[in-house]
Amino acid sequence: MTTENWLTLAGIVFSGIVGYFIKYAFDKRAQYSSENAKVKRETYREYVEFTLKFLGDIQEQGTDATPKQQKQFIKDMKSFHRKAVLYASPRVINAYSDMLQNSYRGNENSLHIMALMTNVFREMRRDIGLSNRGLRSGGIRLLRPLINDYDIQIRPREIGLLANARVALASTQKNNAKSRGDKE
Question: Which pTM does this prediction carry?
Answer without folding.
Answer: 0.65
